[in-house]
Predict the structure.
Amino acid sequence: MKKNFALVSALLPLSIAAQQRYNIVYIMTDDHTAQMMSCYDRSNVTTPNLDRIAADGVKFTRSYVANSLSGPSRACMLTGKHSHKNGFTNNEHGIFDGSQQTMPKLMQQAGYQTAIIGKWHLVSLPTGFDYWNILPAQGDYYNPNFITMQNDTVTEKGYLTNIITDKAINWMEDQRDRSKPFILFIHHKACHRNWLPELKYIREYEDRTFDLPSTFYDNYEGRTAARQQEMHIDRDMDIVYDTKMFRPGVTTRLSNAYRNMVTRLSGRDQQVYDWFYDSLSVDFYKRFPDMVSGKTTNNTRELAEFKFQRYMRDYAKVVKSLDDNVGRVLDYLKASGLDDSTLVVYTSDQGFYMGEHGWFDKRFMYEESFSTPLVMKLPKGLDYRGNIRELVQNIDYAPTFLDIAGAPIPADIQGVSLLPLLRGEHPKNWRKSLYYHYYEYPAEHSVKRHYGVLMGEWKLIHFYRDIDEWELYNLKEDPHELHNLYGKPGYEKTTKKLLKELRKLQKQYDDPIDNGNS
């Protein structure tokens, strides 16, 4: 009898784990790139709390988005479908159709409580959430406004990243129904332009000189679309809005927008901010006197590298506050006893350029913006630890969460569940390629429309409609995507193979090439 009891006891934890309905905390930032996360790249910043997630779970090394732009990326995540299927293809003219099937609605049907706090950026109001408290449009870093479920706009005092975390912890502690499992979406504005730091970190990284990326002075040879963009640190980064070199009388395209953002501070906070950046500004206009009258300085390389350092320092400051707040969430889950029963997911809506190719922003299918960080802290019962090298995409989050909830995955969801990978499995039939499609042109930063396929070490991209150009890259030999091999002798078979795969994916995802895409 004792032997039988021991056998049952030994099997019981596995049975419980199989039936466990895990909570899910999904933390998504804006424009946070793997280069600025130390579990991926130690050359720029240290992110100990983000690294905790990877250390207690998994790090995806080939994680990508379907459309490298904020609103469309969020729509892909919510629906598990590519942009052309969920209807939100671009920020300029998109309005998310909240009446459609979404993963939060399906999670509700599966018995989960759903909540979203922070950045929404889909124009229409959220649906499928038991609780929501969102930012209007992009939101503000300082003393931000929030839209409540009563459709009231309320101003909160403080720094946005801290406030979003306060609200998220408060919901978990005091507002949720403890009889139900929950999925909580914590959506930060950080690290979005224009990188306004928490005041306690305003001096951080000021003694740091960041290394220029090896491609900072890229000449874009053989890449017309890359040459025609408007996201160059040298030409397009606004000296007031982005690098904060404000001076009365200096007017730029975005200087009024900058002052509207920073004057949300008041009293002592405003003085601290102004004193710090004004002192930098005085020194800047001594070094570049032509900039006072709006002229182009002759010291273009010196100016470009000045902008780069200011960009990197302010971005790093924003990341530091973000990492602190991720730590607060992890600490809360542990202290409240939710740690073992909660899957924590951390990702960004896409990657970002930190000076690579001389750029900031995203949009292109090149690796820095096509890829996105993805780490998961796994709950008890999902015991795999380490790197996951399979190709994954943000359309996979919806079916993964449904799978974890024990809910059926509708046939029209285009992503695939990552749950087998979280168990340490390596399915032989896992996807071998990814499809990408970017639509927003003409628009901010002037990145041409394009679609493409990633397969193994190869990538094929087609820029269409406004121009008609193809690009082919071998990522193993050319990881920075500097040498366009399309049309060059010796690559005919590879091009044909990738083109066949591209057409297969367009058919699979019902994005036909005869709808104006070619």
